[in-house]
């Protein structure tokens, strides 16, 4: 008498599904690795071309670093907006141009995007310290935790034109 073997179809289906999902994950990983390698190669090529352009620029200006910096500032003015300002002046300008109170982190982002020199280990603490000192001098007004705005008399100290919004005097954007 021949013995019949019973096949567990549900278990077999699960095994096949697991194998297929494993293979699809492996293929997806392989695809992602290839895509990352391609993007990495593109990034390296882009960086090398930028470096070659900077070296050529440096040679064109005769090795004069200051001329090269001025040329870059003319090309990318938004990146060098605060490059030659003190942090206090840059913070005052950011608050004067802002539409209302700004958080210290927002001010820090603006400083970094504007090319301000922030060499401290904790730049947020430096910005907060400058804002706090400005509050003590009457330049800024603290409205909440790390939330500051320019004091009403500050635009006059800075030499900015004034405008009225609501009932308060604020600096006009230049």
Q: What are the key terms here?
A:
2 domains; mainly alpha; single chain; two-stranded antiparallel sheet; 60% helix; 174 residues; 5 strands
How are helices and strands ordered from N to C?
HHHEHHEEHEE
- Cα separation of the termini: 100 Å
CATH C-level class of the largest domain: Mainly Alpha
> What strand line-up does the widest sheet have?
1-3-2
CATH topology of the largest domain: Arc Repressor Mutant, subunit A
CATH architecture of the largest domain: Orthogonal Bundle
Low-pLDDT parts are: 161-165
Biggest sheet statistics: 3 strands, antiparallel
The number of distinct β-strands equals 5
Helix % is 55-70%
The number of distinct helices, counting runs of at least 4 residues, comes to: 6
């Amino acid at each position: 008498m021949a013995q019949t073997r019973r096949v567990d179809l549900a278990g077999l289906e699960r095994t096949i599904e697991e194998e297929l999902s494993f293979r699809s994950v492996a293929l997806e990983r392989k695809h992602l690795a290839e895509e990352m390698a391609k993007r990495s190669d593109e990034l390296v090529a882009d960086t090398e071309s930028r470096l070659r352009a900077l070296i050529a620029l440096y040679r064109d200006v005769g090795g004069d670093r200051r001329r090269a910096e001025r040329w870059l500032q003319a090309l990318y003015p938004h990146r060098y907006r605060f490059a030659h300002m003190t942090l206090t002046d840059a913070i005052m300008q950011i608050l004067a141009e802002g539409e209302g109170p700004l958080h210290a982190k927002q001010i820090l982002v603006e400083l970094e995007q504007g090319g301000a020199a922030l060499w401290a280990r904790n730049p947020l603490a430096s910005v907060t310290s400058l804002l706090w000192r400005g509050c003590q001098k009457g330049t800024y007004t603290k409205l909440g935790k790390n939330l500051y705005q320019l004091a009403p008399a500050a635009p006059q100290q800075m030499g900015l034109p004034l405008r009225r919004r609501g009932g308060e005097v604020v600096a006009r954007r230049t």
